[in-house]
């Protein structure tokens, strides 16, 4: 993926020259990952949908249709990342829709779901959702869906936002650092969940809450251990206990974002055994970075919850193997050098967040293949389960007739180094600079459109905004007291 190794923006494939930005009618590969097989197949596309997947013996002879024949490259469903932070509208210096969705396309991601808090206004009202949709129009290189937010007092906005087409809401049990997106208390959650009973929405929880016995920070704040000690595992454990109880009581699907501590896994396991519809994600940084390796002043490693010890990381990997953790996401939060307070190196003052969206696939594949994870595991953890969470499983997340023709084409054997020249995020600051990774994306198709090809993007953004008006059951909600 280096600039020196990029091929031209077109490749001779099949009977016609295929240009980036064009509509593809057929994709052929010797390694197509569909259902439980990896085999030679021809994917036939019409009107943005997969209409057939043909085994090699049934391949039609090339016609005048535009065909992409990628040989031994792997063809899989496009990745869905349900946890990204887009700073538009309201923050022109931050990550916007154009740069974010280009970086996603270069990483084989065909759909992202935007979180509600780092834009202005935050997506906590129907009018704010409308402003966000207007801001995104015509700028997205891939498909984008949107989460709403729960904050104190906005319960009357929840059903109208659901009806407008969002799949669910995120909330925080601890201060967010964003003035217009305050955290909720237990009363707020009861009010909101009472309002949302009977709908098919999901609630996303940033699962940290203030410890009951917090102590003043006296250590050197440029040392990562100081920050780590300020946000112990117990903050997540206590929050997830609260979430599990609410989930069991209301039986509303609840999803824990950013799980960093393995200590909470028994709570989740117990809640599921009791019938709680609870799911959980972890992130690339918790699976690839450890607290022991973070240098003094390395505030670009700061995220919340924090990156923990190597032993904890191993337990997260084990939980992925047993599917106690349902999916792996980026939680992409790009920050400028100023926001990361690099001059002082103060971990307590720096903004939290790690940029990784473009490199999620190779980060996961590099770390997981030696642990025995397969292409099918990758599809389950980064395509199918995120599609279910985002209420998109009827059209995205797998390769089968009737689904959107969202495809990722990549070389799982190709190695490359992460450097600033290949990063398409607006802000290039990331702890992964210099990493040697395995797995390079060659092409990305969104609904049959070739939006990315070997370092080049379509000139015109091809993405859709995934909001479809839904019917909400009519009912009289009794007030919560």
Keywords:
481 residues; alpha/beta; 9-stranded mixed β-sheet; 24% helix; disordered N terminus
Please explain how this structure is put together.
It is a single chain. It contains 11 helices and 20 strands. Strands 3, 4, 5, 6, 7, 17, 18, 19 and 20 form a 9-stranded mixed β-sheet that branches. With 481 residues, it is an alpha/beta fold. 24% of the residues lie in helices and 23% in strands. The chain is globular. It has helices at residues 97-106, 126-136, 155-164, 186-196, 224-230, 233-250, 265-273, 284-288, 310-321, 360-368, 375-389; strands spanning 10-13, 16-19, 26-34, 37-46, 49-55, 67-69, 74-77, 79-84, 109-114, 143-146, 148-149, 168-172, 202-206, 254-257, 278-283, 327-329, 407-417, 436-446, 449-453, 456-457. Helix 3 (155-164) packs across helix 4. The longest helix is centred in the middle third of the chain and has 18 residues, at 233-250.
Quick recap:
The chain is α/β, with parallel strands linked by helices and 481 residues long. The chain has helices at 97-106, 126-136, 155-164, 186-196, 224-230, 233-250, 265-273, 284-288, 310-321, 360-368, 375-389, and strands at 10-13, 16-19, 26-34, 37-46, 49-55, 67-69, 74-77, 79-84, 109-114, 143-146, 148-149, 168-172, 202-206, 254-257, 278-283, 327-329, 407-417, 436-446, 449-453, 456-457.
